[in-house]
TrEMBL record:
<keyword id="KW-0560">Oxidoreductase</keyword>
<keyword id="KW-0285">Flavoprotein</keyword>
<dbReference type="GO" id="GO:0071949">
    <property type="term" value="F:FAD binding"/>
</dbReference>
<dbReference type="InterPro" id="IPR002938">
    <property type="entry name" value="FAD-bd"/>
</dbReference>
<dbReference type="InterPro" id="IPR036188">
    <property type="entry name" value="FAD/NAD-bd_sf"/>
</dbReference>
<keyword id="KW-0274">FAD</keyword>
<dbReference type="InterPro" id="IPR050641">
    <property type="entry name" value="RIFMO-like"/>
</dbReference>
<dbReference type="GO" id="GO:0018659">
    <property type="term" value="F:4-hydroxybenzoate 3-monooxygenase activity"/>
</dbReference>
<protein>
    <submittedName>
        <fullName>p-hydroxybenzoate hydroxylase</fullName>
        <ecNumber>1.14.13.2</ecNumber>
    </submittedName>
</protein>
<dbReference type="Pfam" id="PF01494">
    <property type="entry name" value="FAD_binding_3"/>
</dbReference>
Length: 391
């Protein structure tokens, strides 16, 4: 078979790219290794930047988000037992939406299937060929057989463990990497959220985050050791530690049955360049951020919007439009990397910290919660830096 744009991966990046291309009447085929059920139930991120939510609304995908999602006009930092609110609306005139990544994925897949556009599940990309030519191809396995998708452009939106990044010519690629010496243990619990907005807590025992998914489901995270396993954390230990780290005047933690539990590693990673010949990377395929600040999903969507814009201009005859994608994407990616690294550095317990390092961290927390300029810098990044989307 043949199409104009072969898209590997039905995560947020691949699906929004396919959606934006379809609106510009550019054919694409989405290939996804997992089943539809798997990707529609995979629990991941929960915060959408202002412009990401606007992009979904502007392209016909805002209805469920505006019904079952929640608008958050601010967030909270907790340290020394005192809560500090960052008022996004007042500081920036913008906000974020609390809406699960798997719901975004469900909306995008639903729209694509309803429009009768091609998306193949349980189709695993095995090789990408001919990226140095004008007719690259994706070789994939589906239903026990090998298939070939000929295209003009290959968009690798296949996440951190996908095949796309490996297809960059090794001589041209450079990786930048930082691994943090801790992880996040996350739970989903049948408990009403203990607060109407998120709380990011820096506690002597380590970081904690209070988030939510609905009026009846809480999403909570605690910093844990890299070597720790789920067996080390029975539910009661998690609740006790959350209550300790989130404690402040007037607060009480709602608890309930834990319905999901997992440990996430913390890493910053970027590969440059994000393109080679007719191969283009978007989202986690090219970069990873630690989750503090909720940027992973948003960065993936910003990349895909930029790539869609470049492809649309190229398809309309602007021959040089594709060449600028990677540099434009990386310009924003590095700023998002900086914010995620900085939030992670400010909010966690580092066992290697000296007394001086701890004082520096404390001064940062005070500065960014007390100064109007500091609060604005945090808010501006949290609600999301601007990105270009096709009109
Ligand atoms: P993905 O969502 O990873 O999508 C890539 C898709 O490609 C997948 O569906 C995969 O199955 C498919 N694929 C891979 N290889 C192939 C192949 N060879 N052939 C075909 N298909 C393939 N971010 C936050 O901001 N907050 C969070 O709380 C948060 N929690 C996370 C928890 C976990 C466990 C993980 C893994 C990530 C989390 N993230 C979080 C990050 C965020 O979810 C990602 O940044 C986001 O999913 C990136 O979207 P993407 O489309 O680039 O990649
Ligand atoms: C969530 C995850 C994050 O990493 C974050 O910074 C905020 C919220 C969440 O899963 O709700």
């Amino acid at each position: 078979t043949r199409t104009r744009v072969g898209i590997i991966g039905a995560g947020p990046a691949g699906l929004i790219l396919a959606h934006l291309l379809a609106r510009a009447r550019i054919d694409s085929v989405v290939l996804e290794r997992q089943s539809r059920h798997h990707v529609e139930h995979r629990i991941r991120a929960g915060i959408l930047e202002h412009d990401v939510a606007e992009l979904l609304r502007a392209t016909g995908l805002g209805a469920r988000m505006d019904t079952i999602g929640f608008r958050h006009d601010g967030t909270n930092l907790l340290f020394d037992g005192a809560l500090h609110r960052i008022d996004f609306a007042r500081l920036t005139g913008r906000h974020v939406m609390l809406y699960s990544q798997h719901e975004v994925v469900r909306d995008l897949i639903g729209a694509r299937v309803a429009a009768g556009l091609p998306i193949v599940f349980e189709a695993e990309c095995a090789a990408i060929e001919g990226i140095g030519t004008a007719r690259p191809a994706i070789v994939y396995r589906h239903d026990g057989a090998e298939h070939r998708l000929d295209c003009d452009i290959v968009a690798a939106c296949d996440g951190f463990h996908g095949a796309g990044r490996a297809a960059l010519p090794a001589a041209a690629a450079r990786e930048y990497d930082r691994v943090y010496p801790f992880g996040w243990l996350g739970i989903l619990a049948e408990a009403p959220p203990s607060k109407d907005e998120l709380i990011y807590a820096n506690h002597p025992n380590g970081f904690a985050l209070l988030s939510m998914r609905s009026a009846t489901v809480s999403r909570l995270y605690i910093q844990c050791g890299m070597e720790e396993r789920l067996e080390d954390w029975p539910d009661q230990r998690i609740w006790d530690e959350l209550a300790r780290r989130l404690d402040h005047p007037g607060f009480s933690l709602n608890t309930g049955p834990v319905i999901q539990k997992g440990i996430t590693a913390m890493r910053s990673y970027v590969v440059e360049p994000m393109q080679a010949g007719r191969l283009f990377l978007a989202g986690d395929a090219a970069h990873i951020v630690p989750p503090t600040g909720a940027k992973g999903l948003n960065a993936a969507i910003a990349d895909a919007a930029l790539l869609a814009g470049a492809i649309v201009r190229w398809a309309r005859g602007e021959a040089g439009a594709l060449a600028g994608y990677g540099a434009a994407a990386l310009d924003r990616v590095w700023k998002v990397e900086r914010f995620s690294w900085w939030m992670t550095s400010m909010m966690h317990r580092f066992d290697t910290h000296t007394g001086f390092d701890r004082r520096m961290q404390h001064a940062e927390l005070e500065y960014y919660t007390q100064s109007e300029a500091g609060q604005t810098a945090l808010a501006e990044n949290y609600v999301g830096l601007p990105f270009a989307a096709p009109e």
